[in-house]
């Protein structure tokens, strides 16, 4: 009998995708095999408090936070594990073998949490600091893809600080770079289509820029293409593998927040009905992009397939993709022969493998003491 592992499942969080995270966590918690894992639920409130207790997810959904125990994780690896925060100080509560962050967006998927976990020397599911940060930042991601020869849609970056007095200069630069409308305007670091708009004129562009700039200091404007949206699931560490391709059919003009989470006309088609050579190309690009970003554990790679030219572009990589029973990430694996339970087992195994690789890394460099 293998020893049971203690898995901390972390969900909620301070990002705009708090509610989506709770839905993903519900699914992950239902899939984790309790014969193999002891599970500790840790919820993060919208204000950033870490809480544990009985049925944290259900309690968080009801908002009765005062029934839960405040906890914290210290950056000090000699004080590993979860600590309870009581009136009379900090007390060790539980050791965690692996932390499974089911947190989408800012403070979860963007490298910030990963920094804390690295400091704490904790094993965790998903990529490290750099992979998470690059996957989250659409502008840096696009530049990295260009450097790898992976096609991306043309884009121009604008800063919030330029938008006041020099808005006309920004508009001129965007129009010079992208030519004919429509464009897509997006906060550089966000997800779930929050702050994303499709703009068809210079006045729309002003509005779109100001809206996106509320969510981030940096805004990416891209050429708007007429595309099909193809997604691939990837998993692994140094030898990543890709699932079959799937297609999303947004119920609206584009895959907006509403189309993703509320519009019942939005559909997914698995496997995507695209030519086999196109599917193979997309899967190969997904693996190449994953490696280029130093991803680990899991990611979903999203592509655009131009309806007119047949050209393939990578749009983004999501390092903690939506993880509900009807989310693409697990569904693409199920269609590729990996059950939900196997998927979660593999993600935990990848987390432990990555931790072992880190532990094998030499930290000190001492010269021979001479004289
Ligand atoms: N350049 C583009 N051309 C056409 N559609 C786009 C473009 N960029 C984004 N979209 C549409 O907007 C949606 C959200 O944009 P995306 O960059 O994926 O942001 P998010 O990270 O919020 O998912 C996409 O799924 C797609 O429907
Ligand atoms: Mg997207």
Could you please describe the fold and organization of this structure?
It is built from 11 helices and 16 strands. Helices cover 33% and strands 26% of the residues. The chain has helices at residues 18-31, 56-62, 112-119, 129-136, 138-147, 167-178, 202-215, 257-261, 276-292, 328-335, 340-359, and strands at residues 5-12, 37-44, 50-52, 69-73, 82-86, 89-94, 98-102, 155-159, 183-187, 197-199, 218-223, 227-236, 241-249, 267-269, 297-306, 312-318. Strand 15 and strand 16 form a beta hairpin. The chain has 3 domains: 5-124, 3-Layer(aba) Sandwich (Rossmann fold), CATH 3.40.50; 154-223, ATP-grasp fold, A domain (Dna Ligase, domain 1); 227-358, D-amino Acid Aminotransferase, Chain A, domain 1. The termini are far apart. The mean pLDDT is 93. The strands form 3 sheets. The chain has a 7-stranded mixed β-sheet. The protein is α+β, with helices and mostly antiparallel strands and 371 residues long. It binds adenosine-5'-diphosphate and magnesium ion. Adenosine-5'-diphosphate binds at residues 153, 184, 186, 190-193, 196, 222-225, 227, 229, 250, 254-255, 302, 315-316.
In the CATH scheme, what's the topology name of the largest domain? D-amino Acid Aminotransferase, Chain A, domain 1
Task: List the helices and strands in order.
Answer: EHEEHEEEEHHHEHEEHEEEHEHEEHH
Task: Report strand order across the widest sheet.
Answer: 6-5-4-3-2-1-7
- Helix share of residues? 25-40%
Beta fraction of the residues? Answer: 25-35%
- The CATH class designation of the largest domain is Alpha Beta
Q: How large is the radius of gyration?
A: 22 Å
Question: Assembly type of the shown chains?
Answer: single chain
On the 0 to 100 scale, the average pLDDT is 93
| Class derived from helix and strand content | alpha+beta
Count of individual domains: 3
Q: In one word, what is the shape?
A: globular
Number of strands: 16
Assign the CATH superfamily of the largest domain.
Answer: ATP-grasp fold, B domain
Instruction: Give the N-terminus to C-terminus distance in angstroms.
Output: 55 Å
CATH architecture of the largest domain: 2-Layer Sandwich
Bound compounds, please? Answer: adenosine-5'-diphosphate, magnesium ion
Largest sheet: 7 strands, mixed
The low-confidence parts are none
Discrete helix count: 11
